[in-house]
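thread: overnight batch results

M.L. [08:02]
morning all. the overnight job finished for the chain we discussed friday. pasting input first so we're all looking at the same thing
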Amino acid sequence: MEKFIWAFIIGGGICVVGQIMMDVFRLTPAHTMSTLVVIGSILGGLGLYDPLVKFAGAGASVPIVSFGNSLVKGALLEAQNTGIIGVLTGIFEVTSAGISAAIIFGFMGALIFRPKG
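M.L. [08:03]
and the structure it wrote out:
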C-alpha cells in the first residue's frame, strides 16, 4: 500500500511541476513537455532517475520525464555495445515500441471515433 502512495505523490509532483511551468512561467504545452523530457534525460544521464523509478514505481516511470530517461539509457547502452553510432540507434531501439503503439492506437482511435474540431 505504501508503494501506491509514493507513486501517487511522486507522479503527482511531476505533474504539478509541469502545471507550474505552464501557469506561472507561461510556457506552452510543447515547451513544457520538451523541458520535462530534457530534465528526465539529464537525471537519467547522471544516474539519478533510476533510483527514483525504483522508489516510486509507476509514479516515476509513466510521466513524460521517464521518456527522456529512456532515451538516454538506450543511447548509453547501445553506445557501449556498438560505439558512437549506437548513440543514435539506441534512442530508436528503446523507444520504438512505445512510439509505434501510440501511432497505431491513435490511428485506430481516429478510425473508430469521429474527431470534432
